[in-house]
Amino acid sequence: MPFKDYLRKRFFPHIWCPGCGHGIVLGCLLRAIEQLAIGKNDVVMVSGIGCSSRICGYVDFHTLHTLHGRALAFATGVKMSVPRLNVIVPMGDGDALAIGGNHFIHAARRNIAMTAIVMNNRTYGMTGGQYSPLSCHGDFATNAPYGNIDHDFDVVELARAAGATFVARSTTFHARQTTEIIRKAIAHPGFAVVEVLSQCPTYYGRKNKQGGAAEMMEWYRDNTTPVGSKAKQQNPTLIERGIFVQDAGKPEYCCEYKKLVERARRGAS
Amino acid sequence: MVKRRLKEHVIDREWCKGCGICVHFCPRHVLELDEQEKAFAARPQDCICCLLCELRCPDLAIEVITEELQTESATKEQTE
Ligand SMILES: Cc1ncc(C[n+]2csc(CCOP(=O)(O)OP(=O)(O)O)c2C)c(N)n1
Ligand code: SF4
Ligand code: SF4
Ligand code: SF4
User: Fold this and answer.
1) What are A71-125's pLDDT values in tens digits?
2) Which residues contact A213 (CB under 8 A, 6 or more apart)?
3) Residue A102 sits in which domain range?
4) What is the number of the ligand 2 atom nearest to the C-alpha of A199?
5) Could you give the ipTM of this predicted complex?
6) CA A250, A197, A155: angle at the middle one, nearest 5?
7) Is residue A128 part of a domain?
8) Which of B56, B63, B65, B66 to mutate to test the interface with A (most CBs of A within 10 A)?
9) What single string gives the DSSP state of each residue in A66-80?
């Protein structure tokens, strides 16, 4: 099925600003699902609130547009009730790691099989460009006119430490790699986290004098390197991309729950 | 691997927002923005069908339609 058949075309052109990276993530995600030949009725997309979360309105799957930061909690409920469904949870960086940080670490810890995609533009796009927990030290934002004094999370390290069994990072510049990573993440039998660096030219780009969308993508090209590369040893400021964790051995939450129910039933009879 | 050649660029003028990403990153400078800030293929003959413009378009507005390149032997077989 051509990937555009997964779209709700009646809502296009979409709402995102010209050059917003979130549209590239949408394209990569749909191509990944197309490559896996998953039917529309076998995918549930759950999102919270944010520019990124609008993604779920554009796809012709089962979709839930829920509360800011709570997408993973709703997704957990869906997955627990019908474990055979492919649950995909695209989130903004604020959505996933500020208000939703608690849900994020616990979903990772449980290893519940779903795909969490963090569309990281290092800002709160929807509410006008405030700093997020992924804004870097020294970044500018509408509410940090003299520079951000917070430090950012490293999503990869956070997800790994919390117990996620698939952890990867890519960027909108690297669209082919992003598609491939998302495909592997969806096929992974546990909690998968994919961080995609995704430009917000309207706020983050403008506040940080990074130029337009194409220049921001050039920044991704020039400031990232494949995981484990020599370049990283020579220049530690480079951001690594690729697959960091891929462990299919850890018991998955819904499977464990099913076994628990069986044990309890046997015990009761 | 089967070689492919360009049939046409299909650009949805309703969906294109003129962000210029496809123009900026095309390795062969095939694309340009017109006076209405919509992408168009100014030099289609230079296209190498890498599909990068399509994959990176945030508005899913550009599609590179390709066809299989007939190798000489294949053409011969067909005419025989
Ligand atoms: C409970 C709650 N708190 C705050 C908000 C306001 N709000 C809406 S979107 C958003 C943050 C958006 O940033 P992010 O999640 O990074 O996504 P982006 O818009 O950048 O894609 C906030 C704080 C809300 N809608 N609900
Ligand atoms: S404000 Fe930023 S994140 Fe939101 S649609 Fe515009 S470019 Fe994208
Ligand atoms: S990348 Fe897409 S939206 Fe941007 S100018 Fe090209 S066709 Fe238009
Ligand atoms: S397919 Fe490649 S060469 Fe052809 S127009 Fe697109 S980016 Fe340029």
Assistant:
1) 999 999 999 999 999 999 999 999 999 999 999 999 999 999 999 999 999 999 9
2) A18, A19, A20, A21, A199, A201, A205, B19, B20, B21, B58
3) 16-268
4) 7
5) 0.95
6) 40
7) yes
8) B56
9) --TT-HHHHHHHHHH
Separation between Cα atoms, residue A71 and residue A63, nearest integer Å = 11
Instruction: Tell me how many residue pairs between chain A and chain B have CB atoms under 8 A apart.
Output: 65
How far is it, in rounded angstroms, from Cα A12 to Cα A162?
38
Chain A contact for B10, CB < 8 A? no
Q: Provide the token pair at A4.
A: 């555009």
Which CATH architecture fits B2-79?
2-Layer Sandwich (3.30)
Residue A211 lies in a domain: yes
Going by pLDDT thresholds of 50, 70 and 90, the confidence category of residue B69 is confident
Q: Are strands A86-92 and B31-33 parallel, antiparallel or unpaired?
A: unpaired
Task: Identify which of B24, B25, B58 has the shortest CB distance to residue A21.
Answer: B58
Test A175 with B56 for CB contact under 8 angstroms.
yes
